[in-house]
Every structure is written in C-alpha cells, then in structure tokens.
Queue: 4 jobs
Job 1
Amino acid sequence: MQDEPKFVPQRGTAFFPDGRSVRDQVMHSVARGQENVGDFFHTGLQNGKEVDALPFPATLTVLERGQEEFNTYCTPCHSRVGNGAGMIVERGYKPAGNFHDAKRLAQPLSHYFYVISNGYGAMPDYAAQVSVPDRWAIAAYIRALQLSQNAKQSDVPAGIGVQQLSEVAQQQGLPASYAEPWKMPTTAVYATPPGPGTPAMAPAENITTPDASRHPQIQLENGDSPDASGAPAVPPATTRQQAVTPAKAGGAKR
C-alpha cells in the first residue's frame, strides 16, 4: 500500500490540469454536523408554530410516495382509510386517531409531519423509520385522503366517471353489501392473571370482541380479486360511498 498509486493530501499532481490532487467539494455539499435542521423542512414549524403548508409542491409523485409509506407504517393503527380502526385496534389496542373527525380535519398539515417526527400520546415517533421527505409525503397523502373521504360530486373533474362502491363490488363478483362502511370494533377487555401458571393475557368473562359479521371494504381499480375462500386479496381500502374512476387506495387521488 505504501507504493500503490494514490494522491497524497496537500501534494501536487500532474494528473489534473490545475496541478492539485485535492478536488473541489460537490456544489451545495454540507459538512457532517453542519446541516441546518432547524428550518421548516426539518421541524414542520414556522416561528415555533404548525402551519397548513408543505415545503414543496404536492405533486402526484409525492402523493404516490406518501400513499406507499402510509400503507406501510400508518395502516396498522389508522387503517387504509385513516379512520383509526386499524388491524391492531381490532385486536384490542387503543383506537388510533381518526383523520376524518372534526379535530383532525382542523389541524394544519405540518401537524402530521411533526407527530410522525416526534410522536404523540401513545404513538411513538417514526423519525428513524421514515425519512424527512417521506414524512412530508405522508402528511400530503393524509390531506388527500381526508379530501377523498369527504368528496362531493362537484369535486370530480369533467369527463371523469363516478361509481357507487356497491356497483364496483358487483362488477368484481362480490355482493353489494361488501362495500358497507367500516365500524369501529369494540375493544376487548383482559383480566389480570391471578398468579403463576396463568396466561399473561387471560380473557376476562363477558369479553367483548370485534363484530365478526362486519364486511371489509373493497379496494378500487387495483386489479385484485378475492381468493378461492372469498376473502379479499388486499386489506380494506375505503369507506367512501362514491369513488372517482380511476382511483387508488380509497380514491385518495383525484
């Protein structure tokens, strides 16, 4: 290694026209530890307050990325439609925030970025799992999801077809009742084990469980179909009674 060809720091070379072995830094590069992490892009705050804005345009690419990340990290608690009735809630966990109630609809967009970054209540932070741009993309998708679940006929652009979810279900060979709205499951109650040898989460008497007769929702325009048992090939997608065609994951994009 002592004799291998290499550039020695601060020593000249005839290899480059300027005679220097050290190359210029890439434009706009930032030294480790000197990045500005106190700006709106990294904190979601302007003058210490949450605002209803994004640090970059909410393009279709951003929304698609937000949908992907939301479905990966958020749906276990909040569900695909963001109503707070995810799969772990059906199994007895505390209900998550419902993005469609009056409280969440009134929250500024950067609030969602801030909560993903720092956690809130029973929700831990996801700063290690989700990058800063992806947290903003999720926030943008949540807003699009809110708009889609409260969309009106007048919001649909001219020339775009609209179908009832029951019609879409029937087109896929499912009963019209397959598209009924989701219901918040009844949370199970567990008893404290009386002593050694008892299961750590022994069910108490008269335990209440989720409504087993509830039909999951369909996913629109994704090409999936039920498997041989009649179960949907994908998790529930939407509670909306009308959907814009074409659409993805609950019609969150228009």
Note: The two ends are 60 Å apart (CA to CA).
Job 2
Amino acid sequence: MPVESLLASLFSFQYSFWLLAAIALMAVLYSSVGHGGASGYLAAMALWGLAPEEMRPAALSMNIVVTSWLLYRFQPYKLMPYKLFWPLVIVSTPAAFIGGLWEIDAFSYHLLVGLLMALAALRMIVSSRPVETVTLPPQWLLLTVGILLGFSAGMTGIGGGVFLSPILLICGWCTVRQSAAVAAGFILLNSIAGLAGYMTSGQSWPLGSGWLMLAALGGCLLGAEIASHRGAPITLRKLLAGVLIIAAGKMILTAF
C-alpha cells in the first residue's frame, strides 16, 4: 500500500470530537496507574456505536502506543523491577495465545471479569496503605501467576493489567510506582501479540484509527507524569481502585 493511502486510511477523520475526548480521558486515568486502557477504550467506542471489527484493532493499537510511552517515561526513574517482570512475561505471552483459543459465553465472560475487578477494587480501597516492605516471591509462584494471568488475558481479550496490579500490591511484591511499570510492560507484550495475530489473519484495518491513537497518546502524556513521580502512592492506589470500579461496572452492565 502506498504511503499516501496508508496515511489517508489512518487519519481519515470519521470520529466525533467527544469520542476523541473520551479516549484521551481514559488514557489519562488508565496510564496514571500503568495500564494501557483497553477496557476503557472499548467502553467509549461501544457508546459511540463503533463496530466490533473497528474496536478490537483500535484498542490494541492504543494499548501499544500508551504502554510504549509509559515504559519510555519510566526509564529515568528506574522503576522496572526486572527480576519480577521477566519471569511473568516470559510465560504469560504464550499463555495469552492459548487463552485466546478458548471460548466462553458472553454472559459468563462479562459477569466473571466484572466481579473479579470489583473485588480487587474493594480490596484496594479497604487497604489503602502504601507498600512498606517489598518481598520478591519465589520463581515458581511468579511463573504460576504469569501463566494464569496470561491465559486470563487471552481468554478475556484485555491486556491483563487490571488483574496483575492488584496482585502485585496486595502481595507486596513491589511498590505502587513499580507496579505501574510492570503492568505497562505486561500489557505491551500481550497487546503486540494480539495485534500481530489480528494482522496475520488478514482482517480489515479501521479507517481513522490514527486519530484515536493520537488522542490516547495525548492523554498518556499527562497520565505518565502522574504515574512516574508526581502522584503520591496512596493517591495512585485510589486511582487504581477507581479504574477497576469503572471497568467492573462496564463489564457487569454489559452482561445484562
């Protein structure tokens, strides 16, 4: 495809200003806790009546844009705990592929994921104290969590950050800001794998998705500042709970 045609496809303006504003707002909220924001983007696009074939590749693309910037922004602060990160993602990526092969009925899917998010949010609100002592878990436990979360991410179609972040903080495996870096890397790799599979299958690319990615990037520029060093740990923990509540409400309402 010629460069001119590709650019025209990416930036054909067919979305409303309010949808772009909603995407940017979701990017601010989710990126402030190290998440790509796929569940928020999907909710916004669904409200504006976009077709599923438009939503899926657009959400994955926005995930990649946002988490790539987050990881770049985190570098000067050395937030990534690599001994925690690599065991998780090495096993989660193939597990996510396997999870994507499984089928689950729509009602059970939305209800199950929504309830899991709500329980995680409640736990975060009840225990709002920042992590004081960080303890790295044994390798077998990290690998087990990586496999389970990767499989869940593939089966549910989301990056997996909404499941990973609460586990990291509740178990005391890293600090709040470190959890944002780990979640960003985890989501990035899963999203790249998902989008690669989508493109390999030869499915159509949504027109105008470039504007959505720009809106997500714009919101992420602010969210990354909050996540990297400006937000207090307790504030970030409450923001994470808020993200989980929003995502849980969206999932449960969709079930009914």
Note: The radius of gyration is 17 Å.
Job 3
Amino acid sequence: MEAHDPARTQPKPSLRLLSGVWRALVGGGPEGNEELTTIAGAILIVLLAVLGITIIRIGQLLWLHLFLGLLLLGPVVVKMASTGYRFVRYYTLDAVYRSKGPPEPILRAIAPIVVASTIMVFVTGIVLLAEGVSGRGMLVELHKVSFFVWVAFTALHVLLHLPALARWLRVPGSRPEGLGTPSGAAGRWLMLGGGLAVGLIIAVALIPDFGTWTAHTAALHHHH
C-alpha cells in the first residue's frame, strides 16, 4: 500500500494565492453585499443632497448640477449592481442568500421604479448634454419628471438602508465581514473607489460640453 503523502493534499501555492485574491475581491457573502449596498447608498445620500441644492439655484449652479449628475454615474452603477446581485443570488436559490431571507417587501416593490427612473434620468441627461440647447424640446420635461421620480424613490430606497448604515457605524469591531475585514474588503473598496473614479473621469472629460447650457442659462437669468 502506497504511503500517504500530505504534500499531495495541500493546494499548490499558486492556487492558494488565487484563492486568497478571489476571497479578497468577492468574499463577504450577504453581509459584505449589504455593506457595499449601504456604503454606496451613503455616498448617494451626500451627492443627492448637494444635487438638490443645485436644483434650488439652477441658474447659478447648473454647471455643478451637470458635474454631479455625471459623477453620480459611477456610484449609481455600483449601488444597482450590489442590489441586483443580492436579488439574483436570492432568486436563483443560493443557499447562503436564502438563509438571510428575502429583501424587504417595500424594496422589492419600488425596485422596478428605481431602475426605470435611473435609466431614464441619466439617458435623457446625457442626450441633452450631447444635443445642446437647440435639441432640448420635450426632452427637458422628460428629464425633469424622471429626475424627481428618481430622487424620490432612490431617497426612499437609501433611507430603508439607514438602519444597516447605523449598525455599521456603531459597531465596526463586531462586523464579521465588514469593509475593514479581510474577506471581500479589497473588492468592496475597489468597487466604491472605482465607481467614484469612473464618475469623476466622465464628469471632468465632459466639462467642455457644459458651455452651451451654462451660457444659455446665464443669458436667461440675466434677462429675468
């Protein structure tokens, strides 16, 4: 009988490294997913609050409204991806996500409205920016309506995640899979930072296109 060789049962160093990298990027399970969703939501709260101020003073702050709208693209995609991931894992009968229970009924109910209004507000905004003042027409009204629907339902969605944010802030040391723990932490930081970075790059790159809108708004404000 051949003697048992313990070395054969040990994974190769390269496989252990790959496994460690994989856990660092996507580990964390439902708790890690919840925290990614929660922190992305907290970033959105701050940006949406500032965006709300730009609406009140749109004549003077249109440039900031345009900049923040583009900056939001990254965090919004991260938020939708993390929320969508949990929905998919739960409804494809993943045992770990099923054990955590279904998403809140109200979150499931408003999810289609959040997704639809998000797509509408960003698509109309980007088209308006590309077309300039001359091509606005009904598109401006569609952008306004979708914007207010989006803000209302996104704010409600984020508010429903505030208890999770409060728990994260109150007991950081007790979180088994928090942003500060090894499993999945790198991936969550990469997604959050990467989302903001991508949004910032897009916003900065499109600053030259703000000119026609800011000039037009300034002219209207001057006449009034």
Note: The CA atoms of residues 158 and 214 lie 31 Å apart.
Job 4
Amino acid sequence: MIAKLSGRLDSSGEGWVVIDVGGVGYLVFCASRTLATLPDIGAPVSLQIETVVREDQFNLYGFLDGREREWFRLLRTVQSVGAKMALAILGLLSPDELALAIAARDKASLTRVSGVGPKLAERMLTELKDKAPAGEMPVAALGGAVSAGGGGGSSVADAVSALVNLGYRQSDAFNVVSGIALRLGDEATLENLIQTGLKELSA
C-alpha cells in the first residue's frame, strides 16, 4: 500500500493531481483545500496518501498531513460517506473546523457541503463523536459536560470564535478551550471558557 508520495507536480485538474516520482506519474485525488496549497507545476511536492482498493478500482487520495488523512478515514466510516463525499467535506472544512463542528453538534456547518443533508449530518455527528483522532476524541465527546454548564454544545464553538476574533490561531484556541471545558465540567460556561482561555493563551 502506498502511504506517501514525494516527487514533482506534473499536472493538476479539478479534484486531482499527477505526481511524477522517478518518471512514473501517479494520479492522486485531493480535496479542494489541499489543491489550493500545492506549488506550481514542476515544483517538488509531497503528499500523505490513503490507498483505497476496490474490486475494480485502485485509487490514491492525497493529503497535506497525517491529520487530514485520518479525518478522511474517519469520515468514510460513516454510512453513506464515500471517498468522494469525504473529500468534499475536507474541501470545505479544515480538520480543526470539522472537529469543532462535531464538538458543538453544528449540523449547519456540515450541511454546507453539497450532498450532505440534515439526516446525514446528524449521522456524522453521532457516529464521529467518539471516533476523533488521538488527542481530539475528548473534544468531540464534550456534549454532556458543556451542556451541563448551561451553555449547550455551542459554548465551545462560541468561545473558540471569540478567541479567534481576538487574534489567536483557531487550532490553538480550539485545543485550549476543549481542555478547559473538560476540566471545568459543570462550570464550563461561555464566560469561564473565554476568561480561562485568555489566561492560558497569554501565559
């Protein structure tokens, strides 16, 4: 199985690239967000690869890093979410945004993806809340603790949004707020999440 490709970007199109590795061109399917970050044709490129083998197909899917690839794998565990749909989701939502949507049970973010209706979005939120990558699973499973704090699952999303608006990176704010919510439990109100988050991010 191919896990990584490093070579020269030979050509690209809507949803795909060809990577030349020692004279052999590999067709790799990518999310639009991934394609937007790739270098110009002819430049060196390296992608993490997920190999999907079916009876009549052998497809390669490329990702900027292992985290994005892991989310691709997780999305495909959900019924009715195939490789094409998983790429569409990752084309619209970064791993941080996807994890945040699951933590906050934000169906609206998921239904922005073409082909994802309310029922599928609900299924994704339910099935993925306990399947997030290492270090993120507690964030996705916050529901009960945050709801007990009186703010509902949206408290985490609102706190992260507030910190991002203050100039902090989304990934940093997301990791700090999720950890605080787990520690505070019943006291995980929006106000406490923001105040404690500011202290930890500015330390």
Note: The radius of gyration is 19 Å.
